[in-house]
Design a protein that fits this description.
This is Enoyl-CoA hydratase. By secondary structure, this protein is α/β, with parallel strands linked by helices. The chain has eleven helices and ten strands. The two termini are 31 Å apart.
């Protein structure tokens, strides 16, 4: 692939948006390659945590490639909007937990990709925002739906309708980020979060994520049923038995995702 780099090491798959010369803006090729990558990771049992970052030190992603957008017909623009929504939903739907490592600017679609991830860790000085209304359009890859679910309707309405640009430090205050840190410490912070999850049962991680995500869109009683079914998926696993044995032997369990 030309616009996406994928590295897999010790249970962590790192996706790098690789168009640093364009601030990692999304053209159609990048969207297609990101979608292919997501589908490959979905069925890769060796991958337990996914990290998404941007190439270079300036941007996570500044969103849609506006230079490409100027050359597209209205129908092609609609194609791109459908594609970006489809791909970000595939990222959100990955069974593994996904961390956005926001190592620079994250605007428009870049911010929407981060919102599709389960966790967001950012450079506290990074600039970000859903700025589409300043271009006479609206967020079209989930921003109007995911942001209110993360930080609440009123604040999301303010940020989107004013097209406000804000820092990682401010984003942490809004509840948008898991953590905001100095840029030099960003990658280590992301890997620390990944390692904390890697220490736990892989199937349990996936089922807990599923229960939370599915339950958030249901009433409480339905959510409790979803949780119960997800729990039941962990009962026959070898990992659950290994955890009990390790506890009795006072050692760390060795999970295999089985």
């Amino acid at each position: 692939m030309e616009t996406i780099q994928l590295e897999q090491r010790n249970g962590v798959a790192t996706i790098t948006l690789n168009r640093p010369e364009a601030m990692n803006a999304f053209n159609y090729q990048m969207l297609s390659e990101l979608g292919q990558t997501a589908e490959a990771l979905r069925i890769n049992s060796d991958v337990r945590v996914v990290v998404i970052r941007g190439a270079g030190d300036k941007a996570f992603s500044v969103g849609a490639d506006l230079k490409e957008r100027k050359t597209l017909t209205d129908q092609q623009v609609k194609r791109n909007i459908y594609k970006i929504g489809e791909v970000f939903s595939a990222i959100e739907g990955l069974p593994q937990p996904v961390i956005a490592e926001i190592n620079g600017h994250a605007f428009g679609g870049g911010m929407e990709l981060a919102l599709a991830c389960d966790f967001r860790v950012a450079d506290r000085e990074a600039k970000m925002g859903l700025t589409e209304t300043s271009l006479a359009i609206i967020p079209g890859a989930g921003g109007t739906q995911r942001l209110p679910r993360v930080i609440g309707e009123a604040k999301a309405m303010e940020l989107i309708l004013t097209a406000k640009r804000f820092t990682g430090e401010e984003a942490y205050g809004y509840g948008l980020l898991t953590k905001a840190v100095e840029k030099a410490a960003l990658h280590d912070e992301v890997m620390s979060l990944a390692e904390a999850m890697l220490a736990n049962g892989p199937i349990a991680l996936q089922q807990a994520k599923y229960a939370i995500k599915a339950g958030m869109n249901a009433d409480l009683q339905t959510g409790l049923k979803i949780e119960r079914k997800a729990y039941e998926m962990t009962i026959p696993t070898e990992d659950r038995v290994e955890a009990l044995i390790a506890f009795s032997e006072k050692r760390k369990p060795e999970f295999k995702g089985k």
